[in-house]
Amino acid sequence: MLVVKPKLQAAFADIIGIFEILGSFMIGAVSYSSVQASFGSKTEEISRVNEQTSAGTENLNADATQTSSKQTISTLASQLADSASRAEARDKMLSRSELADKANSLLDQILGDAYQANKAKYNNEVPKTDDPELLARAKQATEFVTSSDRGSRSVKNPFGSLSREQLSNIIYDDSGNYTINERRAAYYESDDREQAWRVKVAAQAMDEYNRTGKMTNFFSSVLDHFKELPTIEQAQYPKDYASDLESKISRDFNYRTHQAEGKSENPMNLIEMLLSSNPEVAKQSDSLLPAAQSNKSTAAGVGRALMLSRLFGTENNGVEPPVISGVNGMDLNHIGMSPLNFLTTSDRALLSDMYDYAHQQSADLQNVDHLAFALGNYRQSNNGRAIYNFNNGNNFDFEGHLRTVSFNEKDTATASRILNSDAINSTRLDQGFLRYTLDPGNGALSNTSDFEFMEQMVIKFSDTGAEQISLPSKFSSFSGRSPSESSVFTLSKEVLNPNPASTFKPQIINDNGKWIVLDPAALGGNSLEQTVAQQKIKSAVSLNEQVISAFFGNDKGISEVSTSSGLLSLLGKVGKAKVL
User: Fold this and answer.
1) How many C-beta atoms surround the C-beta of residue 479 within 10 A?
2) What is the DSSP letter of 338?
3) pLDDT digits (tens, 9 = 90+) for 392-401
């Protein structure tokens, strides 16, 4: 769930622009207008985090003033010490996977369906004590949770002054030392701080990319943050989460140039390593082979080594990752992955040959890189089935004019030559991919590869390829294509959308923290509280994912952030979504 401060709204103006190009005026059940409103409300919420954090135990109700400050601190400190001891024993006793399962079970108690079903019971829960401090704190926690669930933060959180580790110890303490609503209130405070950190790190990531084309400092910040999390929270992340980040930091990848600038990233080093240690390549390179066959095998090894280095890096010691099916490539478990992981075995073999050929011809290897990414995106989207065609007749501008997109004159001519050539019938480059990406409704806004270089590859790796001896010298440098500069948009003269975005009227609005129903039918028979809660859960789950997906999936340079699992997978909240 991404929260945007005012100073970031200018940066997100580019995101909104991309939404308009894509026709994505809806984010789940949230309208384009609601997204902007959500950014504003989230900003107000985050601005209160520091206030809550510094509030301290004076947030307790007036009923608690009967107890001295010294006694208040002593009682809370005693409870926290007990919780810390239980957490330490639990973390030592359980394995990582067992701890993750335990965490999910404990979160269900305070955030899941069971909580909603027993909410009235939990709102009336009181500690089994006569201690006025504990009674007052439990009462305030319930008032805070109830207020927050209704979209207001008029009541202060009684745990606003605690550390992240202390909050975690309360959240996951099911000993009965705390009421359910106290644990829920502790979760809210912890989550607020997580969102505040994400706002900061997201801004830093965008700034880093804009200045350098890299995300290395971002990965370092995420890794540092992860290492500071309590053990039970770390257990909820993938097992290789930290090592994956360390690999990305070491690789120091530049997403503008598609070059790894970190340690041990010289392709020739990888070539030498593969030729000397990889059983398959070493066998081919055996000195007993005839010279011509040895040279051919070595060339094949060079192409494969370049493919592995440039597409997958050297973090796996030259071993490529397994092929992932694109059938579910766009679901939440896969959308943050690099599209390169979805390249088939035959795709990778062909790209190895392309790298070898381009290397021999002194061509800029970025030409092959971008073609590989385009092919990978096609595979990840289930061979294009999961991505709608922009020219499907359902894209309208704000006023309701139908929008269509086409290639510019140069790309149109190149696409036509490829699609009508004899080579397309025998080329090793997937014909389905070619017909998909050379359709402007699919490729105009996403494909950054040079169509003329693609044409050369179609010919070279076809039955007529023997006739092609060399590449034109212009491919010694990479030009590529910019979707924003190479695409031509057309608007219909008539207004064809009967319900254009300009006529959108919200059914439920938020006025200074209070929800107002403009159309009772919008509640669908539910209470206002249930409707708002459901709406916010949907927003929490989908807003960050879809904004970042739209932003990083449709820009020439930054789209390859997915190579590093993307901001989506790195910042995606582990555990349960909070109802604000």
Assistant:
1) 13
2) -
3) 888 888 888 8
